[in-house]
Batch of 3 targets.
Target 1
Amino acid sequence: MLVGKPALILAGLPLLVWALVALALRLVAPPEQESAPPRIQASRRTLEEGGSAIISLTTAPGVLTAATFPMRPQTDFAPRYGSTAGDGHLQLRLSAQRWGRVRVGPVHVLVTDQLGAFRDQLELSAPDVQVVPSATVLDAPVEVPTPIGVSGVHLSRRRGDGTALSEVRTFRTGDRLHRINWRVSQRTGQLHTNATFTEQDTEVLIVTDTIADIAPAPWADGEDPTSLDMTIRATSAVARHYLTAGDRVSVFDIGHLIGPVPAGTGPRQLRVLTDALARAGRDDDQLRPARRLRAVRAGTLTVVCSPLLRTEVITQIGELVAYGADVIVVDTLPPSIGDVSVLNGKPLRADGVSPDRFWPEAWAMRRLLRETTIRELREAGVPVTAWEGPSSLAPVLLSLSAARTAPRMRRS
C-alpha cells in the first residue's frame, strides 16, 4: 500500500496464511511431540554372517522424519543407499556379509512439521551391531588321535568303564555284576564278563595367525575372503565342532587381534569364543610382533590356521610338534594369490610395462617357496590342508583316526 501496488499483498497473502497456520499448529501441538527426542535402536545386537537386523528410528507422531545412514563395506541396506523417510517411525534393514563389528552411525536425521515451516537437523550415534562368523558345522569325524581327558566321547585304548566292547574274559574279583555275559557263562560253565574301553574327552588348541591380513588377488571376485576371513571362519567351525562333542577348546593368537581364550567347554565357551572372534578387526596395516606359546600338554589336538608366510609361525609349529602335540595345519592363504594361470596374456600399458608392476610374478615365486615349507611339514608328519569349507578337515581327521587304530610293530 505504501508503494501503491496492492498486488504485492495478494502475492504475499498465501505465505502469510501458511506461516500463521504453521504457527497455530505448533502452538496446539501436544507437549510430547516437542519434547520427545529421536530414539534409534537395533532389533538384534548380535547376528551371524548373512543375517539381518532392523534399525528403528522413532521421533513423534505427526512429525515428518528423514534419515540417512552411512554406507559401510560388506553391508547392504534396504531401502538402498541407507536413506529413508516417514511419519514419526522409520525402519531400515541392515544385512551384514562379513564378521566383525558394524558401526551403523552416525545417522543424520532431519525432522520437520507437516507444513515444513519448522525443521531441525541433528546427528545420532547408532548402536553397533556385532556380526559373528557363520555357524558352519564341519563335515568331519570327532575322533582325536590321543584322548587325554577323564570322561567324554572319544574312545581310548585304556580299558575301564565305557560302552565299546574290548573283550570277553573270565570274571575277576571286583568286576561289576551287570557286565556279566550270561550267554558265554552258560555255554562255558564259568562266569565271564565284558571288558570295555573307556571314553575320554580331549583338549583342542586352535592357534591363529593374524600377523598380517592377505587380501585376494585384484582379478579375483570381490566377494572372495581374505586370509583373516578364512582364519576366523575356520577357527569358528573347528571350535563349534569339538565343543558340540563335549571337548575343551582354547584359542591362542600368534598375532594380537583375537587374544587368548582360555580352555572351556559347553555353550558358554562357544559364546565367549565367537564374541572374541567378532571383536577382532584389522583397521590398520600395522604389523605386530608374534607371540610364542611356551608349552602345551602332550597329546593336545592343535589346529594351526595360518597362511604359512611368516618364519615365526613355522617355528611355532615345530615347537608344538616337539612338545608332543598332534598338529594339523589349515592353510588360509587365498587361492588366487600366486595363481600362475593369469600370467599368460597379462595386459600391458602403452609403454610395455605391466600395470601391477610384476605383482603376479612376485606372488607366484612366493607361493613356490611356500610349497617347499608345506612339503617339509608333511615330511615331518604334520598334515597340511587348505581351507575350502566345512569338509576341509575330513580327510585329515579320518587319516589321523585310522593311524591311531592301525597295528604297530612291537619292539623286543
Target 2
Amino acid sequence: MVVAVSFSAKAQKTTKGLPNVTIKTLDGNSLSTQALALKGHFTVVSFWATWCKPCIQELSAIHDVYPDWQEDMKVKLIAISVDDARSRARAKSLVKGKRWEFETYIDENGDLKRAMNVLNVPHTFILNKDGEIVWQHTSYKPGDEEKYYDVLKKLNTKK
C-alpha cells in the first residue's frame, strides 16, 4: 500500500508536462523531450501514426490553419508518431509528402506514449506557456481543430 501511494505521487508529478524520455527525429537521431523548448508559448502535442487515417486528417487540418495559430498566439505544434523503427521511413516520407511544416518526431519504443498514458491515436494535448498539460482530447472528427483553437484562445486571454 505504501508503494502504491509513492507511485501515485510520482505519477501526478510527471503529468504536469511532458515526461523526460528519449524520442527520435525523423532521421533517427535521439532527442530528449526536455530539449523541445516548450516554455514561453502554447504547445499542441499530437500523437499519431502513419496507418491512422483520422490522425492524418487531424494533422492536415491543423497544418492548414497552423500559420494563423502561430501568428495569433505563437503556437508550437509537435507531432509524435507512434510508429516503430521499421516504419520510420514511411513516417518521414508521409511528412515530406504532406509538406507538414511543424516539428515531427518518432516515439518508436513507445516510452513517451506510455508515460503520457496514450492508449489510442490520435491523442492531442495542449500545454500552457509554462509547459504544463492543461487539456487533452482523443480521436478526431473534422472541425476538432476549431475546438483546439478555442482552447488556445481561452488560454491566451488568461495570460
Target 3
Amino acid sequence: MTNQTRKKPELLAPAGNLEKLKFAVLYGADAVYIGGQQYGLRAKAGNFTFEDMREGVAFAHERGAKVYVAANIMAHNEDFAGMADYFQMLQKVGIDAVIVADPAIVDVCREAAPGLEIHISTQASVTNWQAVQFWAKEGIPRVVLAREVSLQEICEIKRHVDIEIEAFVHGAMCISYSGRCVLSNHMTNRDANRGGCAQSCRWKYDLFAEEEGDLHPVSAEGDETFTMSSKDLCMLEHIPEMIEAGVDSLKIEGRMKSIHYVATVVNAYRQVIDAYWDSPETFVFKPEWREEIMKAANRPLTTGFYFHQPTEDDQIFGVPPKMTAYDFAGLVLAYDEETGIATIEQRNHFKRGQEVEFIGPGRERFIQRIGEMWDEDGNSLDEAPHPMQKVLVRVEKPVKPYDLMRKEKGTT
C-alpha cells in the first residue's frame, strides 16, 4: 500500500485547558481531546466550560485541527440527569466528536445530538476485531483500542474491519486493565471510573508477613517500599510500525500534564510522523527526537503491550531512577529582528548567566546562556523571579511567539 492510497495518521494530543489546547495545535497536533465539566475521567484537570470550548474549537478549526470531548465515564443511574442537554450543547459549540465508553451514553448522545460523531473510548476495553466490528455495525466510525492490544493484534484487527482505529502511543500506563481500577474507590472514596482517580497505585507500599499473630515488614529497614507503578508508554521509535499497521490516530496521554510536556511531546511525534510519511524508504530515526522526549519524561519508558506481555522490567520498583527534567521557564511573546531581543513571559524563575533552551514548532532547539535582560521599562535585571513577569532578553537566534524557553530543573 502506498501513501497515495491511504490517509496520513492523525496525531491526537491532550489538552487539559484552553492554553494547552493552543500549544498542542501550534506544536503539530491534528486533533486534541479535552474534558468538559461533566462525564469525563479527569475531574482534576482544568477542563472546559462551554465558552472555553467555543474559543478552543474556533482556534483549532482556523488551523485545520479538530476537537474531541471525552465523556467516557462508566455511568450510574444518577449520571444521566442533564446528559442529553450536555451533548446538544457540544454539538452547538462545534465539537467534532465525543469519546464514549458506556453503551447507554452512546444511545443518549445519538438521540440528543445526531450530528455529533461518536468514538468508542479505550475504557470500553476493545481488544479484538469482532468487538470493533460490533461497533462498526452500530454506525461508530472510530474505536480507541485498549492499551493491552499488541501491534500484531492491531494488524489482525485492521485486516477485518474498515473503520478508524485509534491507539495510544505515549503517556502514563494504568496498572489496572484498561484503567478499570477500584483501588481509588476503596482507599479514598474517589471513583476512578467517574473521574476521581487518586492514583493509589503510585503510592508507596510495603509487604508484611504474619508470624504468630504479629506483622513484620518483608523489606529491609531503609529499603524503598514496593509500588505498583508502571513505566510510561513511548512508541516514538516505532511510529513507522504503527503507521504500517494501519493505525488511523496516534494518541498521546496527558490532559493533566504541563504545557512543556504537551509542546515537547507533540513536537517530537509530529517530526517523526512527517519524516516517515514523506520518505519511508529513506527514513532514519534521529537520536535528538528521543532526547527531546526524555526532557519531558516523568518516568522511565516502555513499549507497553505492543511487542510482548509486560514483565517486571516494565514496572518501577524501589527507588525510581532520576529523570533529567526541565522547567518551562518562559513563553516568547514577541521578537525584534533588528535588535535580536525577545519579549518573554516568565513561567519559572530564571536569571542572568543561566543556560536555557529555546524550542518551537517544527524546528531544532538551540541553547544559550542568558546575558543581557531588562524589564518592560528598560531597567537592567539580574533575575526574573515573578510569575507572568514580562522580561526582555537578548537571544542568539530568531524566535517566534509561542516558542518556549526551558531550563534544566535544579540548575542555578
